[in-house]
């Protein structure tokens, strides 16, 4: 018998992976070339060559016992210093190695932050639609996730809704840009509005409200600059992951970065380090940490994602779908053709299109298309999207 708390959350989960698996079964029946599976965000562009090359080099050159042994919980000092230097040179920041903690991707980093900052009933505000795992990360540590809806015309944060969501129990704000599920990149004006409100509210409540910037998609931005949040708000904790930038989600490597100006930074660092042990994470994988000495700034070829984005965005708009131009990540948020997005996703399956219902991301009435698929799959899906659209047009004409 599993815990009642977990049972409740399992029953409530809309499992995108189940839809993905269903797609694989459909592919076995109809042929994979006839199924358009846009459900999960598993990178589809090859990792840059330097990833495998550096791993092979390290395995050949390093002493096995030391490479495979326990490092410090927070990671190797030379790797942390290398990342701090990279961030300082790239974004003009003032990190040092004692502000960096190597993590098992972004997921473990957010869980560690929640464990470090939340007492029972404390609140975390995030901009909705949001990455569905945020709720579990926060609720697992007895916190409450409070959604602040974006403006659904622009998919940018809405300052008034955001301000209303903040209370004296707010311990941190979780922000994700480029965004999963919408693909939006929050603009300079949006970030400025959000951080101005945060500064005011910190003052009013008399305690820090941290801004946790979850950035696994930072490198996946198309012809647009993604603001670096520490320039707007000193109490920013950056969470970075190489899962998408290097197409290595299975390797589980990322980091937390805090500048010395972050309030109570040394306490936070100690709390995060302890959380790493208490949660059973212990340390980030050693080979993958060392690999970063050679590819801290490497990236997949993002022009491939951009091409697929353009095919789908232009194609869907031309058919008549409503979607907001996504400037980053590999997601397209599209208005469902009926109020119930789950029913719409079921209808799409008849055209062999699989998508994730927006309700799973606190975005009811919308669907998420994850376009990490080959561009020829995106092109071939357009006639199926057109048939789906025409089916709905026929329906409204019949009424
Ligand atoms: N945050 C967001 C917004 C994500 O989309 C994901 C994964 O898809 C994660 C965090 C977790 O990423 P990681 O593989 O680095 O744990």
Query: What would the principal axes of the Cα set say about the shape?
Result: globular
What is the C-alpha radius of gyration, as a whole number of Å?
22 Å
Number of helices: 14
Mean pLDDT: 95
Reported for the largest beta sheet, the result is: 8 strands, mixed
How big a fraction of the residues is strand?
Answer: 5-15%
Count of DSSP strands: 13
Proportion in helices: 40-55%
- Class computed from helices, strands and strand pairing: alpha/beta
Order of helices and strands: HHEHHHEHEHEEHEHEEEHHHEHEEEH
Strand order of the largest sheet: 2-9-8-7-6-3-4-5
Low-confidence stretches: none
Our measurement of the CA-to-CA distance between the termini, rounded to an integer number of angstroms, reads 49 Å
Bound molecules: pyridoxal-5'-phosphate
Features:
single chain, eight-stranded mixed β-sheet, 399 residues, globular, binds pyridoxal-5'-phosphate, alpha/beta
Explain what this protein looks like in three dimensions.
The chain has 399 residues and is of the alpha/beta class. It contains 14 helices and 13 strands. The protein has helices at 4-12, 16-30, 49-61, 64-68, 77-91, 105-117, 133-139, 159-165, 188-205, 265-278, 286-295, 302-319, 341-349, 375-398; strands at 36-37, 100-103, 123-128, 144-151, 156-157, 170-175, 210-214, 236-241, 254-257, 331-335, 353-354, 356-357, 366-370. The strands form three sheets. An eight-stranded mixed sheet has the order 2-9-8-7-6-3-4-5, with helices on both faces. The chain has a three-stranded antiparallel sheet with strand order 10-13-12, covered by helices on one side. Strands 1-11 form a two-stranded parallel ribbon. Strand 12 and strand 13 (366-370) form a beta hairpin. The N and C termini lie far apart (49 Å). The mean pLDDT is 95. Bound molecules: pyridoxal-5'-phosphate (PLP). Pyridoxal-5'-phosphate (PLP) binds next to helix 6. The site of pyridoxal-5'-phosphate has 13 residues, from helix 6.
